[in-house]
Amino acid sequence: MPAIKDKMVSVLTVSLPRRRLLQDLATASLLLHARAAFAQAGAGSDEKRPREIRLAYQRGGILVIAQQQKALESFFEPRGTEVVWKLFSYSNPALEAVNVGSMDFSSSGNTPIIFAQAAGFDVQYAAAQRSGDGGEGIVVLPQSGIRHVGELKGKKVAVAKGTSAHYFLVAALQKAGLGYEDVTAVFLAPSDAPGALLRGDVSAWAVWDPYLALAQQKLGGRVIEALGPDIKSYNFIVVRRGFANEHPDALKEALAQLRPIGSWAQGHRDEIAQQLAEITGIELETQRLAAERANYAITPLTDDIIDSQQEVADLFFKLGLIPKTIRVRDAVWSWQA
Fold first, then answer.
1. Which CATH superfamily is domain 52-131+233-331 in?
2. Edge-first strand listing for the sheet containing 82-87
3. pLDDT 10s digits, 217-258
């Protein structure tokens, strides 16, 4: 928001005696100086206002849109808080940065924050987004002949460990009547999986947008299962617990700036695709496909969302993928805090 500048009130001099005019001008000058001093003292005396807010963003989602639109800068920088952005390839390294204190905010799929909580990371859920249908899936090359998830039995599937795609793979296998042990999960970052798929080192790749859209458009990939009514998921805005404790008002302010961006993005997908293409270097048609099936609206965490996350956490513990049981609700920051 642009700073609001004081406007001098014009003084009609023709009907005022000279002494009265001088008195009024002196009074006006004192008021202006007092107002400026008050504003300066207020800015300096607020010990809770952070000097900077550091956000880890990725190649898709609401944070990269906020980064491009400079909405947080417009709000925070006039108030003396610098906004710092850093690009990460996916949620897991971003959450590690939040945990060690080099970042304050990040986005996360449903799984990375569960792994983070199980590992004792200093992170909390701040807001939620329902994942868009089709924005995550399992893709195969057309020449593979694989058309159904059930045909993956005994095969290798690329997936980034501890990501939302990891959960999606487990859920898709269950839906097809298979267990996680019926496939061999090959843990690869999104940058490494396409090569493995093309070489035949793996038969399928579980991944999210925009990488899923890239696989479809650049590799001719066929999606054999995707997010939808049968398999739902959530994304989250994640905050460093220490930041939330020290600067709850700034956290509320940041979420207040993000919510209208999410609402705006829901109805401006072509513009979002254009912005993301410019930011990420990923071609417009790929970003358009990803934007069409994304959900950008953010909300507080409801009991239903928390229960859904708890089911994911319990499943990963049952499979031995996290070392202990966790209580998701313990890591939820309250918007009323």
1. Periplasmic binding protein-like II (3.40.190.10)
2. 82-87, 52-57, 105-108, 234-240, 123-130
3. 999 999 999 999 889 899 999 999 999 999 999 999 999 999
